[in-house]
Structures are given as C-alpha cells and as structure tokens.
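Purpose: get a first structural picture of the assembly so the mutagenesis plan has something to point at.
Setup: two entries, given in the order below. No constraints added.
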Amino acid sequence: MELAAIITKLNKAAPGAVLQKARFGRGGAQAIWIEARALPAVAATLRNDPDLKLDWLENLSVAQLEDALVITYFLRSRETPLCAILRATVTLNENESPAELPEVPSVREIWPMARSMERESSELFGIRFGGELAAAGILPKGWRGFPLRKSYVFPQEVFGIAHSRQGTDHA
Amino acid sequence: MKSGSFYVSTVGRVLKWARANSLWYTSTGAGCCADEVLNASGNRYDLERFGCVPQVDAKQADLLIITGMISYKAAPHLKAVYDSMPSPKYVIAVGACANCGGMFAPEFSYSAVPGADRIIPVDVYVPGCPPRPESIMNGLIALQEKINGTGRNHHKAQ
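Result (structure tokens, whole complex):
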C-alpha cells in the first residue's frame, strides 16, 4: 500500500490531522507530519484498520529543533509489509512551571510498547505524555532539570563530585 | 637488633613482596578497556604470572581495576565495591574514561564522572583509549614497584 493511501485513510478517519508528508533523513523514507492533539485518533486508525494493522511501535524518538520538540513514531506491522513514520511537534516555552511543560497525548493504550519509551522521553526531555510527568529511573534520584534539552546547563557539581576536569590532584 | 626494626626491615620486606606478588584483582568491567584487561589476563599476555588472579567477589580482592566510563548513577556502587575490599587495597584506573572522563568528558556529557579519583583513591593511572595489554601489564608492574618501595618514582617521593 502506498503512503498516499495511508494518508487518504487518515484524512477520512481524522480530518485535519495530517499536516504534510516530508522526506525523512537521507534515505527514501517519507514521514507523515500530524497534529499532536490528533495523535490518539491517528494511532487508533493505523493500529486497527484491517488494511494497515501497524501494530508494532518499533521506536519512539524525540529531538529538539530550535524551540520545538519533534516526536517521531516508527511503525511497523507484524502482518503486512507496511511501515510508516509519524512525526508531531510540540512547542517549548522556557522558564515554564511543572504544570506548563509541553503535553502530548499518550499512545500507550494503543501500542503498549510506548509505555517505557514515553517514560524515558518524559524524564529526559520534560514532556508530559498523557498529562503526567513520569520518572523512568534513568537519572539518579534528586536530579534537577531535563538533560537532553538544548537549554540544559551542565551542573557545577553532582552529589558532591565537581563536574569539571579542573582541580584534580594528579600529583 | 630490636624486634621493631627487624619487623620493619625483614618482615616488612617479606610482607611487601608477598603483597606485591599476589594482587588478586576484581574489575568493574565497562567498555572496551575491559576487553583489554581480559586480553591481558588471557594466555598470550598472562597477567597471572605476576600473581594477578581474577576474583569475582570484591571481598577476596586486593586490587580494583577500574575500566570504562563511570556515570554519576554508578558512582555510589563503585564506592561500595571499593569499601567492601579488605585492606591493604590498591586501585588501577585503566583507560582515558576512568582516568579523567575521556571522550565522555564533562564538557560534553552531563552524566560522566570526570575520573575515578573523584570517588576513590587511585594508585596507578594507565593511559590509552584503550591501552594495549602491555600498558596494563606495565601499570601492574608499576603498582608492584610502588608496593615494594622500588618504584620508578620512588626517589622523587622522598
């Protein structure tokens, strides 16, 4: 099935959700850019449509471009030879309070594999998937800030260990 | 001859000789330097002929060989391994990551400890990325010389 057919199905199921299709990376893959708030409807269509059956969330990645976070969903099917790449952006406003952290609808009910990947992205980027800020336990307890954001300032000291090469006594 | 001086001179020398030639080691193997330590203890380089026998339990080890990058999350566990070793205990830091953070430098990474000596005292630093087994052997011999008091920098320390 062509990408155009997938987009046609998505336009029928969730009108206005698809923003554009764009080349992804250096290869020939095409990504479908969608509205972040329409994500559950799009995901349910891709998962449940008998022609698509994209039931395998292969990967979930997050990257920061300027003042936006781009969330990419890599989808495959266990029954059909299809694969698809979904992308959605969420704007980032700095100096935000915990309640104002960017929010993205969760797809963990549709693809259960999303649970751990959403938790990891949530902890490292400060995204609230489904309205909650999860702690994946990757960072040590008591860590402040979201280290994969571009605005993250490296700490001077972590748990009493100076975070620099200066001042080491190698004598 | 008083017994004290006999102990310091003769018995002490025997003790140092015994300690230097039975450095049973445990290793915090992470990264490619761990492979070089394995090579060094393998049959081609044979670290065991220096009395350097790998041990699984830190409680039976005299020497801790630190390889690979240490993250802030792993730092307390490395300290726990060192604390559970019986005295006298020695530490060799193998490779750039264990020496100073290496390419996971504090300038580029938020999570890399800039050197094992920020957490525990280190006796010998083996440079390299990764060091060859000869370098690790050289580091072990340097530690033996340090224990025996015949180290190559011994005259500088006095």
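Helices of chain A lie at 3-13, 39-48, 114-125.
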